[in-house]
Amino acid sequence: MSTILIIEDEQHVADLIKQSLEEEGYNVLHAADGLKGIELIKSENIQLVILDILLPKMNGLEVCRQIRNDGYTDLPVLILTALGSAENIVLGFDTGADDYLAKPFKLIELKARIKNLLRRSEFFDANGTVINDVYKFADLELNDYTKKVTRNNNEISLTSTEYRLLLEFMKNPTKVLNRGDLLDNVWGINFDNGTNVVDVYVNYLRKKLDKFGDKKLIHTVTGMGYVLKNDA
After folding, report:
1. Beta strand extents in 119-192 (DSSP E only)
2. Which of 12-16, 188-192, 211-215 has the lowest mean pLDDT?
3. H or E segment at 179?
4. Residue 130 phi, psi (nearest 5)
5. CATH number of the domain enclosing 145
6. Sites of the modification 4-aspartylphosphate (predicted)?
7. Average pLDDT over residues 130-150
8. Fewer CB atoms < 10 Å away: N or C end of the chain?
9. Which residue range is the domain that position 156 belongs to?
10. Pick from 146, 224, 145, 147: which is nearest to 182 by CA?
11. SS3 177
């Protein structure tokens, strides 16, 4: 069973989550500050991190950024914090988080999100068969097993969220995807309709893709959403 690391300075919150996840069969570790959390990630085989923002020694956003800078690009990070405004959500994703849940929270929702994140990070299907899907569109290629993305044979470095967003477009070429669909399928949660997290990440992704090609591939459809198409 997967090993989950909780980085949370409120002991009663950590104990509640730890007990609930252990009852589900997970192996759970706990760090009460950001620096200890980083140490455990480096020393243990962690499959998912639950991360508070308001931490001693190193805050959660710094921890998340450090995790990505240290090369743990595929390690799922779920931010769990009382800072639940749209601005904080976008900031959390900007530092490399995969999901964001505001306190107070329901354990049943937390466990559902954990299962969703762990499922996304798997390289094998339920029968143990390697998933080796390669998606191609115009001069863009995405290998969903190696997680490698190239355009005109130039490798493109993406965050985990940018990668999932591109994968959704690659699975639905020429189809207009509205913001609600992208929020559900990429982030796996329902945000307040006022958030601009989709627009922010589409912009990030566009800049990285356009750097290696002559044509823009992700287009805005006014009032509807976005579409992957090979038009000038």
Report:
1. 134-137, 140-143, 148-151, 154-155
2. 188-192
3. helix 179-182
4. -65, 130
5. 1.10.10.10
6. 52
7. 79
8. C
9. 134-228
10. 224
11. strand
